[in-house]
Specification:
This protein is α+β, with helices and mostly antiparallel strands. Helices cover about 60% and strands about 10% of the residues. The protein has a four-stranded mixed beta sheet with strand order 2-1-3-4. Bound molecules: glutathione (GSH). The site of glutathione has 8 residues, from loops.
């Protein structure tokens, strides 16, 4: 019997996109429920059947089970999708640490950069702040490259991707979209990460998805995102 799966998030890529990739990549049918950030949100936030025990998204429903929090959802999906079968505790930890770093050290600070514009407009220290944070975030890509060099196969998990790969794939995309030139310079030093991205979009289900218009066009729910993105790209180029 087909599982009943819903992944609920807002209508942007945000914290949920790597989770969407995990399900799509394996051809899993699911409801990709996208809530608007509108005046109805406070009521939904206070409804644990919608926004889970913490009043925040993403939330996953798998048959009768509900899981909240991005990284635990990724771990749950990894187990449900059989990605950990036959792996040692250490091999699992290695994949989870990569997914965690891509999410917490790259995607999340970049999302905060979009929400907060980095710093108040006109702040004299803004460029220095941006340079420092750009270096910190992009430094992570180099670490991923080094870890990837120590594995055989195109992915952190060998011949086929797991959560680590979907999160790194998404993290690299955020760097390209928000940090422009410095991200491209860093990626010249990361041929394995670039190849991972190529191998990811060559996966049949992901190919169809990224070529379609199903992927959200915005990274965050910030209504001023495109203006902020232009500002970030101009400042970092
Ligand atoms: N620790 C959670 C944080 C979840 C979170 O803060 N989600 C945001 C959306 S990006 C949210 O639901 N914000 C609305 C609110 O808190 O009212 C995770 O990593 O998933």
């Amino acid at each position: 019997m087909q599982n009943l799966i819903t992944l609920r998030y807002f209508a942007c890529r945000g914290r949920a996109q790597a989770l969407r990739y995990m399900l799509i990549d394996q051809g899993i049918e699911f409801v990709d429920e996208r809530l608007p950030l509108d005046p109805n949100w406070p009521a939904r936030k206070n409804d644990p059947t919608v926004s889970g025990p913490f009043g925040a998204l993403p939330v996953l429903h798998w048959d009768g089970h509900q899981v909240a929090e991005t990284l635990p959802i990724a771990g749950y999906l990894s187990r449900r999708l059989g990605q950990y079968v036959g792996l040692s505790d250490e091999e699992i930890a290695r994949r989870e640490m990569v997914a965690s770093s891509a999410y917490l050290d790259v995607i999340r600070p970049l999302a905060e950069m979009v929400w907060q514009h980095g710093a108040p407009a006109g702040d004299a220290d803004w460029h220095a702040w941006l340079t420092r944070h750009t270096q910190l975030v992009l430094g992570r890509l180099l670490r991923f490259e080094q870890l990837l060099a120590a594995t055989s196969g195109a992915f952190f998990s060998g011949a086929s991707p797991s959560a680590a790969d979907h999160f790194v794939f998404e993290a690299v995309d955020w760097c390209r979209m928000l940090l422009g030139a410095p991200a491209l310079v860093m990626l010249e030093r990361c041929p394995r990460l670039v190849a991972l991205g190529g191998a990811m979009v060559a996966r049949p289900q992901l190919r169809i998805y990224v070529d379609s218009d199903q992927r959200p066009t915005t990274l965050t729910g910030n209504p001023r995102e495109f203006e902020v993105r232009s500002r970030l790209l101009a400042a970092t180029s």
